[in-house]
Amino acid sequence: MSSWTVDSDNEALGAFVRQQTGASWSVAKRHVGTGKVFVDGARCTDPGTRLAAGQKVELRMNAPRPHDGDTLVPIVWEDAHVVVIDKPSGVSSVPYDDRETGTAMDLLRNTWRTRDRSAGRVPLHVVHRIDKDTSGLLMFAKTKRAELELARQLREHSVRRRYLCVAHGAVSPGRIESRLVRDRGDGLRGAARHPRQGKRAVTHVSVLEVLRAASLCEVRLETGKTHQIRIHLSERGHPLVGERVYIREMVNRGGTPLPASRLLLHAATLGFEHPVDGRAIDLRSSLPDDFANAIRRLGGDVPG
Question: Around 151, how many Cα atoms within 13 Å sit in the side-chain half-sphere?
Fold first, then answer.
């Protein structure tokens, strides 16, 4: 294994690996793409990832390809009706086409099989999703009864969801409401131009700590629309650190995005009423190491 410490901000991961190893661009890119490169202990497969000064990059030539069949996922809570996992960043919640593998559903089934070979045949019903680049708590139903009841709770906004994120600039706390559409006019999801268009989305933002050129925020979702947190903060002028999509307006204004090896958004808490016996279930996920290290580099304290 080889390891290096990054000296300066905003260097691309592929270029950094190439420089450190003396390999050709194609070889350096292959090392990253096949899961041999880790940033602050977390696998990173995008050679375009921007690094920050102080990050540790490791080249582990013996590391298996990402999402091999033996890849496991932490199970945070489970019974006969519901299972909640701690999804890593970079993993899709569910497959978006028939060819996609290595999703959270796949990792969960792999984990079950290590305990009981027949467990992989347990049905899984999708209740909600979190973005591929978001880490944290993700819930599936194991029975149709549980699926219907949890879907009802989500529709009625009684599921308790809080996220931690790092956003560019000095964020003002408050309530953000808009109506979101699939295309706001520039090809991206965002706020509708007309009040009768789109779906209502409500986000509550509080600021936990002011960082260097950024803010550590706790966000509570009242509704759960696709990319809601990312869109709402970006349209307020505070795109998330590590954002690749909703960053255009900041760049067009001459802003320089802070480097990050991942999107700094984490589903930290999940609360719901048990779909069968009505118990209050409240779960918590600690920040992954790569997220915590990013906060420290920006001069902040990691929430306990």
Answer: 11
